[in-house]
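Hi all, posting the design record for the shared folder.

TITLE: backbone redesign
STEP: 1 of 1
STRUCTURE INPUT:
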């Protein structure tokens, strides 16, 4: 088993936090000492609160999310809007120290990204660069509906070009039964990418026995 996973997504609000929480919750119930880490957040620290609750750990939101901007936008954009020098405020050493803290303290750590993989964290440094730096296997979270093929395949292609290990794709959210694409998106993604694909609707549990690829 790896020391952790990096949960990224095809876009913002695709269900990263929900999926990260469900995985952390399942691992905890399985007896695995599980940490949660969201290196950077914007708008609020609600994601960190949800992650802490899911993993049932005694950590504060500032530890789980060491870099925070109040404006709900890309970290780089928020740093410019808040008139703070991005190269100084986006402190990679602070993030690395926090990352090492979780790796050393917990048996397994669920790391959640921010937005999609090309969201700029600072000038010329993206979520994809953070994934490279952490060197953890990746799970891609995507929506069920129309448009998800393009977004998912682009994300997977970028990760493959970066030579990152992709564990699989999780389609998350609420299925719109009026959207005919919902019926075939999962199977098409699986056929094209050759990756494991899990459909996880709201209030469903992650079955690790059926989906060992999540932590293998």
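Okay, here is what came back for every position:
SEQUENCE:
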């Amino acid at each position: 088993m790896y020391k952790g996973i990096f949960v990224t997504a095809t876009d913002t609000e695709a269900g990263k936090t929900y999926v990260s929480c469900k995985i952390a919750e399942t691992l905890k119930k399985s007896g695995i000492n599980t940490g949660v880490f969201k290196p950077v957040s914007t708008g609020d620290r609600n994601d960190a609160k949800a992650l802490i609750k899911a993993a049932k750990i005694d950590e504060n939101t500032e530890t789980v999310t060491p870099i925070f901007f109040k404006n709900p936008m890309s970290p780089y954009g928020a740093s410019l809007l808040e008139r703070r020098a991005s190269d100084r405020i986006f402190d990679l050493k602070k993030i690395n120290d926090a990352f090492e803290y979780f790796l050393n303290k917990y048996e397994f750590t669920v790391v959640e990204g921010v937005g999609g993989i090309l969201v700029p964290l600072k000038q010329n440094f993206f979520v994809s660069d953070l994934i490279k730096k952490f060197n953890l296997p990746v799970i891609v979270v995507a929506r069920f509906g129309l448009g998800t093929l393009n977004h998912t395949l682009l994300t997977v292609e970028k990760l493959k070009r970066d030579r990152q290990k992709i564990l699989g794709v999780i389609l998350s959210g609420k299925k719109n039964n009026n959207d005919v694409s919902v019926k075939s998106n999962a199977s098409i993604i699986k056929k094209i990418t050759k990756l494991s694909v899990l459909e996880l609707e709201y209030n469903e549990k992650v079955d690790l026995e059926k989906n060992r690829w999540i932590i293998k």
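COMMENT: The mean pLDDT is 94.
Let me know if anyone wants the other runs.
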